[in-house]
Design goal:
Layout (H helix, E strand, L loop, with lengths): L1 H32 L10 E2 L4 H37 L5 H47 L7 E7 L4 E8 L2 E7 L15 E4 L4 E2 L4 E2 L1 H21 L5 E7 L3 E4 L6 E4 L17 H15 E3 L10
Parallel strand pairs: 4-8, 5-9, 8-10
Antiparallel strand pairs: 1-11, 2-3, 3-4, 5-6, 6-7
Length: 300
């Protein structure tokens, strides 16, 4: 009994110290914010990669939690097992079982952290790509376009929606890494034949299919919301890649620096100011859902 108390006392003192340090800080911040509110009365528009930013934050918290558990778990097991050692109630078999449990749990935590880090790296790559393409698309506003980002649809999001005189565009952005080689432009070129994306060492078709599915969904939704047929052009953006187009339909493929091409008349459809306003109103209603962060009240 005495050994258990001697082991638990340092842990209890540590937890008490953490509580005594954090509680006053939290209480002071709550008191300082009392009676104040944000000057912003409405929700904000979504930025490029809003969903990815939230996901990256979630993954970072999960990674920190698992990393914190990693060194604490063996100490926890040891603290429970130490009284048995003092009481001389251990056997070789029981020691091997405990060691096996510790090894299995630590391996599981290591694999979990590795997978979370891999997903976070992929999200960061996607965020960089969406930010780059979003900034280029924003330049279309000088050509009478309305540009929206991270459009929330049904169980998925459309990276960018551009509405302007030359039509409506649903833009899907993909971040793809390039090899560290000295082959120059060859290693950074993707060939599009209308059905397949041919990268230097692999092929892809799913991004094209995804871009078309999203454009079809947006077309149906806008047609219902506006009350008139609305054509939506599917666009796939690959920032940082040189694009060789052997076809330009049915999906329009652009590099990150070719967003300006959407402002060029394609002969498919032209929109008047009234129609642009009606479509933009519907899109904005779904994209304006970001709550201001400062002085945000906690939901009960």
């Amino acid at each position: 009994m005495q050994s258990i108390i001697s082991i638990a006392t340092p842990a209890a003192l540590y937890l008490l110290g953490v509580f005594l340090f954090t509680f006053p800080l939290v209480w002071l911040q709550k008191r300082k914010q009392k009676g104040k509110r944000s000057p912003l009365s409405g929700h904000l528009l979504r930025s490029p990669g809003t969903s990815l930013q939230s996901r990256i934050e979630e993954l970072s918290l999960d990674i920190m939690a698992y990393i914190a558990i990693f060194p604490a778990f063996p100490l926890l097991i040891y603290s429970f097992y130490l009284p048995l050692i003092h009481a001389q109630k251990t056997t070789t078999y029981s020691v091997l079982i405990i060691i096996g449990i510790v090894i299995v749990v630590l391996l599981w935590i290591g694999i979990k952290v590795y997978r979370l880090m891999t997903e976070r790296n992929n999200c960061r790559l996607g965020l960089d790509a969406e930010m780059a393409v979003g900034q280029e698309l924003n330049q279309l506003m000088f050509n009478g376009f309305r540009v929206y980002h991270d459009f929330p649809a049904e169980n998925f999001n459309i990276d960018h929606v551009a509405v302007g005189p030359t039509g409506v565009y649903a833009v899907e952005t993909k971040g793809r890494t390039k090899a560290i080689r000295k082959a120059g432009k060859v290693e950074a070129t993707v060939v599009y034949d209308g059905k397949t994306l041919q990268f230097p060492s692999w092929y892809e078709t799913e991004p094209l299919l995804q871009a078309q599915r999203q454009a079809d969904w947006l077309r149906k939704w806008l047609t219902s919301a506006v009350g008139e047929p609305v054509y939506v052009q599917a666009v796939l953006a690959l920032p940082g890649w040189y694009v060789v187009r052997k076809a330009d339909r049915p999906i329009k493929l652009i590099s990150g620096k070719e967003a300006y091409s959407l402002a060029k008349p394609s002969g498919i459809t032209l929109l008047g100011n009234d129609m642009i306003q009606r479509i933009s109103h519907q899109v904005e209603q779904r994209c304006r859902d970001v709550e201001p962060v400062a002085y945000r009240k906690e939901k009960k």
